[in-house]
Predict the 3D structure of the following.
Amino acid sequence: MDLFLTICFWIVQGGMAALGAYVSLKPQPKERHLVLIIAFVALFLLGGGINIIQTKRASDAQTKLQAQLDRIEKKPEPTPQVTVNVPPQVPPNVFVSQAPQTPQGRDTSGDVMSKVEVINTELKPGTQLAFNLKLLSRSPLPVDGLIHYFAAAAGPIPNVNNWESEEDEKVDREVFARFHKASVKEWQAIKPGQPRISIETGKGVYNTVAFGFATQEDVDNVMKGKVRLYAYIRARWKGSSRELEECEWMQPPSTTVFQDDRIVWHACIR
């Protein structure tokens, strides 16, 4: 519909331009002046009407999108419920070291990388889809003085047929902005001298976040791309320039059996 209105608008604009050029290049007799004036006014009013309709449709779409986002924040259903920053359940192969202070006398110029891991499950009503949001050492040197923020959220997608549409990108930007704002607020609450985390070589730290699916509609919304699941990881460690901030959304899988090695993630538009 929007494309049709845009085409109509430019047809009207082209008609006005052609009529203006015709009148300028070929002077018209006085008896045709009234007809030409009426034609100009009609084209002007038609173009203005189309423009008003386009503006109203864009405003309504924005209002609807904002209402959907507000419902996600305030009401867990019908979109998936979001649990953010659930305390981690640490498996044996991942060691989390809570250092009371940054160790002295060692080189701690290491680096970390982020990773989102889907816990394999079959998605159906009454189940949860859980992610491990990880920060892993990726260098032979340890990392000290680490602070981090993990979160997940769901966002309604207006245009499920075009992932790169302006409406979908707007959802990305709004979700990312809320993630970033929440991370800043949490980090500002950290008191000077408060213990931070150390990650030894080859190890890491992570939290588990989960989405609950109460109904079949919740499941269908994710599988059809009507609701997009987002994961966010932000970290800062020793050295003022050492910071990581990643936001990703999950591409709808082809099957309700979720397997981590088959899940495709896309970077958020910021």
In short: Helices lie at 2-25, 33-74, 166-188, 216-223. The longest helix spans residues 33-74. The radius of gyration is 27 Å. The longest strand covers residues 143-156.
